Each structure stands twice: as structure tokens, then as C-alpha cells.
Amino acid sequence: MILDTLSNAARYNSVHPLFEKAFAFIASSNLDEMEEGKYVIDGDNLIAAVFEKGAKTQAESNEKFECHDKHIDIQVLIKGKESIGWKPREKCTEVKGAYNPEKDVSFYVDEPEMYFGMEPGQFVILYPEDVHSPMIGEGIIKKMVVKVKI
């Protein structure tokens, strides 16, 4: 997991071959004005989703304590304040249901080991080994999630 501000995003371009293109898309977008929906950046290699929803309680979010096998998430907070639960996958012990290959998601019964906060202008990079429960907070949260194919 990597947590940083968008002003430092270029530092991570060399971490994955598609990160430069992902961060260029984010930088060239007027995030505050972006409409909700999906944005194809590079075929099925890079797809962004923008949504604005009511925040969840910690318990609600932990019901879908999730991770992905075939994608890295770059989650950018646009509006609101958000907390995200996190635990390394290697420490998770109980899978909740079967892996869904269409949505590239697995859920765990486990609880997060820690929580971290995000403010607008920050992003988090979540790898397949990062089990997470996002959207914890109060009020409305607007964010972009870029799915980076591995």
C-alpha cells in the first residue's frame, strides 16, 4: 500500500508500467467537475470509475472487506473525508464466499488491522495483497478509483 498526495504522484510512475498514464489522466481531469461514471483510459488495462455516495459506518464497510487478484486500485479522494480499513492479505484467515472473477474481488470475514484517513487531494495505491474496507466516514464522499490491470 502507498498513501500520498497527488502533488507527489509522479514519484510513483516507475513503480508500474501503467502508473504514468493513470496519473496523467488524473492530473488532466477536473476532478471536482467530473461526472459519475466509467472512463476508459487504456482499453481494459486502465479504467477509472468516479462516484459520489454516502459514507459507510466502519461495520458496514467491513462487511465487504475486499481485495483484488488482477488489478491494482489507485483510489483518489475528491470530496469529503474518508477512512479506509487495511490488513495484509497474508494475515487474513477466513475467506467470505468464493472469488468473483468477473468483478475481480474476494471478500474476507477478518477485521482490518488498522485504519487510515484520507483528505481530498490524496490517493492510496492498493495492491492485491492489501485487503481494504473503503468509504468509511460521514456525509458524502466523492472519489475516483482507477483499476490498473496487472
TrEMBL record:
<dbReference type="InterPro" id="IPR004375">
    <property type="entry name" value="NanQ/TabA/YiaL"/>
</dbReference>
<protein>
    <recommendedName>
        <fullName>Beta-D-galactosidase</fullName>
    </recommendedName>
</protein>
<dbReference type="InterPro" id="IPR037012">
    <property type="entry name" value="NanQ/TabA/YiaL_sf"/>
</dbReference>
<dbReference type="GO" id="GO:0005829">
    <property type="term" value="C:cytosol"/>
</dbReference>
<dbReference type="Pfam" id="PF04074">
    <property type="entry name" value="DUF386"/>
</dbReference>
